[in-house]
Each structure stands twice: as structure tokens, then as C-alpha cells.
Amino acid sequence: MKSTISMNMANAKTSRKGIFKSAGLWTTQVLIALVFLFAGSMKLLTPIDVLLAQMALPLPGWFVQFIGVAEVAGALGLILPGLFRIRRDLTPLAACGLILIMIGATIITAITMDVVSALFPLLLGLLCTLVAYGRRGWKLA
Fold first, then answer.
1. Domain layout of the chain by residue ranges
2. Cβ count near 70 (within 10 Å)
């Protein structure tokens, strides 16, 4: 009887820990998705000539639009699979895609501006890494 009680208490602690982990991951996913949805939509809605005039390193317009599409798709990929419980294995893949974008953004920002400005894309990349690692156990639903 004593072992049953201790097992139930261990399961309660584990489930409570799992709830906090899941809530933390969902909060992180939503915040990251909002940032990427905003950034990607700005790249898609702003005229190319205005967008290129604001950039320190001139990139081709089609590439900037491609990054915008990838950011919007990544933002949707962080939220929609888990929300609808369909192909939840796509969430860590979306996070990995956003990690690649943030690696490039960190490098370009560090080269063209300064290291302090590169901390924001670096932090976003680390948060995407956290989501990819935390959601790696999601299987096909």
C-alpha cells in the first residue's frame, strides 16, 4: 500500500511538471509565432523598394520575400499542428526551419550592424531551439 501511495504521488508530481512544461512551451510558441508572423507579413506587405532601402546589406527582393513567406509558414507551423492535433510532428520541423533563418539573421546583423543588435535574432533562434527540443516527442496524431 505504501508503494502505491508513493507511485501516485510521483505520478502527480510528474503530471504537474508536464503541465507546466507544456504551458511554458505553448507560451513560447505563441510568442515566437507572433514575432515571426509580424516580421514575415511586413516583408510581404511592404513594397520591395522601400524594404530594400531600409536594409544595411542589399539582398535580392525575391530573397527577402522568400524569407517573409518562410517566416509566416514557420509561425503557422509552430501553432496550427498542435492546435488541431494534426501532424504534430511538423512543429519541431517548423522550429528548425526558423532556427536556420535566425542563424542567417544573426550573422547578417552582426556583420552589418553590431553584436548587440545581433542578440535579438540569436535569442529568437535559441527560443526556437527550445521549442524544437521540447516538442521533439510529438508523434503523428
1. 2-134
2. 19
Q: What is the pLDDT of residues 95-127, one digit of tens each?
A: 999 999 999 999 999 999 888 999 999 999 999
Read off the pLDDT of residues 42-77 as tens digits, 9 standing for 90 and up.
999 999 889 888 888 888 989 999 999 999 999 999
- Rounded to whole angstroms, the Cα distance separating 131 from 102 reads 14
CB atoms within 10 A of CB 74: 25
Cα 135 → chain centroid: 11
Of 114, 112, 110, the C-alpha closest to 102 is 110
Cell of 59: 539582398
CA atoms within 13 A on the CB side of 39: 22
Cβ(102)–Cβ(128) below 8 Å: yes
3-state secondary structure of 99: helix
Closest CA to 81 of 22, 140, 137: 140
